[in-house]
Amino acid sequence: MTEATATAASSAPTEPRGDLCIRTLAMPADTNANGDIFGGWLLSQMDVGGGVFAAKVAKSRTVTVAIEAMNFRKAVYVGDLVSVYAHLVRIGRTSMAVRLEAWVLRRKEEQPILVTDGNFTYVSIDDDGRPQPIKRDPGVLPA
User: Fold this and answer.
1) DSSP state of 28
2) Rounded to two decimals, what is the model's pTM?
């Protein structure tokens, strides 16, 4: 384990942060050539969860425009229960930054394990696919 990997592992949160967006089971069809769950599958699950969260915040359709700072911390295996959590980092006029965390619960484990996290940016769009202002709810959203 490199020093950077050790630092990242030691700085990993010990419990999920944010709203639970989706939960799914990792299946054999989702594996790569090594038998581990394919990273692209996990990334897509995170984007689905983030999209659910972003649409709830924006109260409209949203699209993913950027994915930054992805950290693939641990492997995901067939049979792992994958849960994606989201929390709002920043909100602008038409876009928002969302921090997504993917956690797994393994069959013989009692505590969830953080496997992947990253920052996603979503834009609120109208029915024609053009960016539109996010409807702010002062009691819920940060200024």
Assistant:
1) G
2) 0.85
